[in-house]
Fold this protein.
Amino acid sequence: MTSPPKVRFAPSPTGLIHIGNVRTAILNALFARREGGSFVLRFDDTDLERARDEYAAAIREDLTWLGLVPDVEVRQSDRVALYEAAAGALKAERRLYPCYETSEDLDRRRRLQRARGLPPIYDRAALSLTDADRAAFEAEGRKPHWRFRLNNTAAPDQTSPRPTEVAWDDLIRGRQSVDIGSQSDPVMIRADGSFLYTFTSVVDDADMGITHIIRGEDHVTNTAVQLQLFEAIGAAAPAFAHHSLLVGADGAALSKRSGDLSIAEFRQSGLEPMTVASLAALVGTSNAIEPHPTIASLADSFAFDRISRAPGRFDPKDLELLNAKLLQTLSFDDVSARLGALGIGGDATFWSAVRGNVSVLADAATWWQVVEGPITPAIDDPDFCAAAAALLPQDPLDETTWKAWTSAVKGETGAKGKALFMPLRKALTGLDYGPELGPLLPLIGREKSVARLSGNAA
């Protein structure tokens, strides 16, 4: 029996997460939920200069708001001993080797290689250093950075890399291969002793038993190196699935300015969490883009073969349309507590009357003000409104009153169509748009309606 999958979302807490990050998070979470697996939140916070606890808290809050509550949460900063142990084993096997070149040294070598028509990749000169050479560098005050020696069928002296393909079956992109011989041996440990993401990620994935890595296609070239790292530390590699990235409505790359398209921004604008989750999950797939009521519902629609390799086009305007569509599906019980928190009263009858005219829940405040008053009526034709007021039936008003009343006004004044309905709407609501007045009129009530038709605020 196959064990349940285990996936992870691994943001760096160096800023707010945006819609592109959330797409990765939600695809991981949906796959885990659909398959009965587990979803790990792993903060890649080894960048001590940029990582902040407040960003980690903000990311956690955003995911919780979206309904993406992880089963496990870990921080890489708590796992340094694990990375040191793995690095020690690879150093003993000379898969990690010390290098002493400065950035200026490396730039000069790359220029020379280009001038000779050679690819500007690291030449593995550090593998030829003697103990005396290394001691001399360290006596100068140089600290080594450590590179991972790729298994790329190098010549016996390990200095002349030859092209070697690393291939895997990607769950979204199909068969993939990377020419590992065209890459330099990557740095895994900086001169200050800190570990780079590529190394810590593999060690964590192996230690935590991650079975599937679902991430953006910008990581495809990293996969070849990471597959060799998994092999080097004696761990089975997870399955990989690289999804396409999001672009704007015009096809251009999404902006990454601070706060731009952030989940915090969407939340503060009043969007429903399932609106954002639905669009993030469905854009760039063959599924219809429609609001789902729950994460479980979205998970039922998830499948790798429905994710397109073409970039997903993200337009913030789609969020507005989708949000309005979602609100129309919500019952009064779904929103009553939140309406109360916004200072909006009313009951199921009120919500039923206005929900088709709200883009975000807070828009209902406009229609609550129309019902409760006072408003400033817009009177274009006082005589017409006075005639209409005289014909308004006595209490109680109900949903049939509007049709009977407007028929009577039409008969009395001869007005019809827009000339009949618009003056009444503007007088009763102060606006030239809004919900159907049939269900709204009884909520306004006869007394306020007569006052407004007379031009009085009520």
Observations:
- The mean pLDDT is 93.
- Residues 19-34 form the longest helix (16 residues).
- The CA atoms of residues 245 and 337 lie 37 Å apart.
